[in-house]
Amino acid sequence: MHLEDLAEQAAQYRNEEAHIEREVRVCVAASCQSSGSLPVLEALKSACDTQGAGSCKVKGVGCMGLCSAGPLVAVADKDCALNESVLYRDVTPDDAPDIMASVCGAPVERLRCPTDQPFFSRQQRIVLEHSGLIDPDSLRGYIAVGGYAALVRALTEMTPADVLREVTTSGLRGRGGGGYPTGLKWSTIAKMPPGQKYVVCNADEGDPGAFMDRAVLESDPHRVLEGMAIAAYAVGASKGYVYVRAEYPLAVERLETAIRKAKRAGFLGAKVADTQFAFEIEIRLGAGAFVCGEETALMASIEGLRGQPRPRPPYPAESGLWGCPTLINNVETFANIAPIIREGGDWFASIGTEGSKGTKVFALAGKIKNTGLIEVPMGTSLRDIIEVIGGGIPDGRAFKAVQTGGPSGGCIPEAHLDIPVDYDSLKTLGTIMGSGGLIVMDETSCMVDVARFFMEFCMSESCGKCIPCRAGTWQMHALLDTLTKGRGTRADLALLEDLCDVVRATSLCGLGQTAPNPVLSTLRYFRDEYEAKLLGDA
User: Fold this and answer.
1) 173 forms bridges with which residues in the sheet?
2) In this structure, what are the phi and psi dihedrals at residue 328, rounded to the nearest 5 degrees?
3) Does residue 493 sit in the same domain as residue 400?
4) Would you say residue 454 lies in a domain?
């Protein structure tokens, strides 16, 4: 298969739909489905048939981002982007006739959601470029927007070294939280002796308030498979696994469909794209253990063992699954690969900051008006994300803090909202970017309660293998519980700080090593609230 063959397939699909002038797109990602988007989709299809709108197509698409306004329906000329559409919010099945009537007439103003608002206009979508535009279950729809062209180009026009060079030039860093340079990780595995190698997609997204990876898998699963196949070609792997939690049934279903269709079409399996490259992908379901987001625990789970971390070195690049070199990246990292190969590493590197290239997908949650999924260039300030794109704090209340990095991150106060969001800047504030969850808190939030909540999560999710994490998180939670009830002493507070240092320095894996971060950051910026608890104040 050559690029010309793929282009011919795309042209054929477009020709078959040449009579379609307008599209009615209904979000069928999990967020909108939970608000009732499937009945809306069926009602719109029925209204389309009744009204005889032959030049209009009603279809389900992935996440449109503004989850707080779902179910979302967009009406647009074919191939138009989301911000060029007429967008409707809070749609019900009863609205279907009016929406279908608006396809060739005036918009339904009572349902209209402006797409020129900053939530849409201030984004730069690379990972999410097809989200909300294509049918996640349609391979032909993915091919029509350029899907798998990057894989075919890599296999037919580039050597593995060429692919590694582009990824390295891009400056892409792992989007799973650690921020390790992707090109360096890939190059390390590529240098390992020939033999069995594996590629693993870590889709075990478990941070409270985080739903970035889930939305990508539900909205554009072929994009992730394509990135994994390109990675396998670059490092010399022949087998891949997507490790996804079973709590994401819609993502699992769409992944299964995508893998089946991609294999049937020759983009996975033996002789991919009619070349000598072979690559198989299987899904492994996780039981929801947060610790399995850690690389070595994840690999143990894939092997059928209990999901517990092991000491490193050896690192997965040297000795991973079944002792073989293994490449592990998360969903968002793989979703960046196809556009990097398509547009070039220099293009990607021109976006973002000096040390953090490209864009980042964030999940906005908590006390914020525009709850949902966004993608912005690295270096965008927290203030822009929260106050401009996110719409600020609802009900006229004041902003208090934002938690970045989930249980492994920290809480940032208003005084530091102008900091650019990148890997290095967030470290200076005692937090991390993590996978991209942003939980916003208003003036009603008690930061000691917030610290206790995240410590309870870490305590419950500890695998128990090492004493510092198993016992330390329990003791820290007990101290925080005492403090929140106003029964703490200064000795308790001093002991809490000492335990933070011990657990962080001596735990086996990242769960324990970062568990103290919410406590340390709230102590750093909101110590007065801890002091007030010592005095027995509310």
Assistant:
1) 181
2) -125, 120
3) no
4) yes
Helix (H), strand (E) at residue 8: helix 3-16
Model pLDDT for residues 202-234, shown as the tens digit of each residue = 999 888 888 899 999 999 999 999 999 999 999
pLDDT value of position 53: 64
Calpha distance 391→310 (Å, rounded)? 43
Q: Are 375 and 124 in contact (CB under 8 A)?
A: yes
CA distance 268 to 451: 45
* Matching residue, tokens 């997609």: 201
| Residue 281 CB-half CA count within 13 A | 32
**Partner residues linked to 377 by β-bridges:** 359
Q: Could you give the number of structural domains in the chain?
A: 4
Domain-terminating residue out of 424, 442, 460: 442
Say whether pTM exceeds 0.70: yes
Residue 7 placed within a domain = no
How sure is the predictor about 80, in pLDDT bands with cuts at 50, 70 and 90? confident
Task: Work out the mean pLDDT of the chain and round it to a whole number.
Answer: 93
- Rounded CA-CA distance 466/445 in Å is 33
Q: To which H or E segment does residue 470 belong?
A: helix 467-484
Query: Whose CA is closest to 267, among 255, 251, 279?
Result: 279
Of 153, 194, 149, 180, nearest to 6 by C-alpha is: 149
DSSP category for residue 193: P
Whether residues 307 and 238 share a domain: the answer is: yes
| pLDDT band, very low/low/confident/very high, at 52 (cuts 50, 70, 90) | low
Instruction: Say yes or no: 340 and 364 in one domain.
Output: no
Residue 18 and residue 451: Cα distance in Å, rounded?
Answer: 56
Report which of 482, 472, 471 is spatially closest to residue 448, judged by C-alpha positions: 482
pLDDT at 176 over 90: no
Residue type, 18: A
d(CA 515, CA 161): 39
- Residue found by looking up tokens 């999560």 in the block: 457
Q: Which of 391, 393, 390, 426 is nearest to 411 (CA)?
A: 426
Strands 239-245 and 198-203: parallel
140 in a structural domain: no
In the Cβ-directed half-sphere of 216, how many Cα atoms lie within 13 Å? 34
266 close to 152: Cβ distance less than 8 angstroms: no
User: Which tens digit of pLDDT belongs to each residue from 334-392?
Assistant: 999 999 999 999 999 999 999 999 999 999 999 999 999 999 999 999 999 999 999 99
Q: Which residues constitute the domain of residue 336?
A: 147-348
Q: Are residues 395 and 251 in the same domain?
A: no
**9 occurs within a structural domain:** no
In a shared domain, residues 166 and 313: yes
What CATH number should be reported for the domain holding residue 429?
3.10.20.600
CATH number, residue 504: 1.20.1440.230
Q: Are residues 302 and 229 in the same domain?
A: yes
